């Protein structure tokens, strides 16, 4: 039985995909099977052509996890429209913590399980730190 190869696509408005990939490279090192699509950078170019090429190159044993920047945004909508019938998982509103967890997950763990756990953990990474520090300082003072 052939193992599933997990591939990743970061598709965003503008240069966000390149920026977050740069952060990934610094934190976890270079990673294989990560593709980037930056929409509307050149002459208002969309994502259809780049996305179709990535989908065309998927092998029967591949699965693709797509990270998009905004739920309900044009990138997410186009990804959903063009990936029907493909082995694709779409995650919108990602952050760096989520990307790191998904990319570093055990490839034997089902993608849906990895993604659901990463979303829960990524939400915990969003915090109003100034307020947390103020509360901690108030507790120390009392």
CATH top level is Alpha Beta
- Distance linking N and C termini: 63 Å
Helix/strand-derived class?
alpha/beta
User: What's the order of the H and E elements?
Assistant: EHEHEHEHHH
Mean pLDDT: 94
The geometry reads as: globular
How many individual helices? 6
CATH topology: Rossmann fold
Report the strand count: 4
What ranges have pLDDT less than 50 throughout 5 or more consecutive residues?
A: none
Radius of gyration: 17 Å
CATH architecture identity: 3-Layer(aba) Sandwich
| Share of helical residues | 40-55%
Query: What is the oligomer described by this structure?
Result: single chain
For the sheet with most strands, the description reads: 4 strands, parallel
How are the strands of the biggest sheet laid out side by side? Answer: 2-1-3-4
How many discrete domains? 1
Beta strand %:
15-25%
For CATH, the homologous superfamily is named as: Phosphotransferase system, mannose-type IIA component
Describe the structure.
The protein is an alpha/beta fold and about 140 residues long. Helix content is about 45%, strand content about 20%. The protein has 6 helices and 4 strands. It has helices at about 15-30, 50-55, 75-80, 95-105, 110-125, 130-140, and strands spanning about 5-15, 35-40, 60-70, 90. β1 (about 5-15), α1 and β2 (about 35-40) form a beta-alpha-beta unit. α4 runs antiparallel to α5 (about 110-125). The longest helix is centred in the last third of the chain and has 14 residues, at about 110-125. InterPro entries: Bacterial_PTS_sugar_comp, PTS_EIIA_man-typ, PTS_EIIA_man-typ_sf. One of its GO terms (biological process) is phosphoenolpyruvate-dependent sugar phosphotransferase system.
């Amino acid at each position: 039985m052939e193992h599933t190869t997990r591939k990743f696509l970061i598709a965003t408005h503008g240069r966000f995909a390149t920026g977050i990939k740069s952060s990934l490279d610094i934190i976890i090192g270079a990673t294989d099977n990560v593709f980037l699509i930056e929409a509307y950078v050149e002459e208002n170019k969309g994502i259809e052509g780049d996305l179709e090429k990535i989908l065309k190159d998927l092998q029967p044993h591949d699965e693709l996890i797509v990270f998009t920047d905004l739920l309900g945004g044009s990138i997410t909508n186009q990804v959903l429209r063009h990936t029907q019938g493909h082995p694709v998982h779409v995650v919108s509103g990602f952050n760096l913590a989520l990307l790191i967890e998904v990319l570093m997950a055990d490839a034997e763990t089902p993608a849906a399980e990895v993604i659901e756990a990463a979303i829960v953990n990524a939400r915990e990474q969003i915090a109003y730190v100034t307020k947390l520090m103020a509360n901690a300082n108030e507790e120390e003072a009392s």
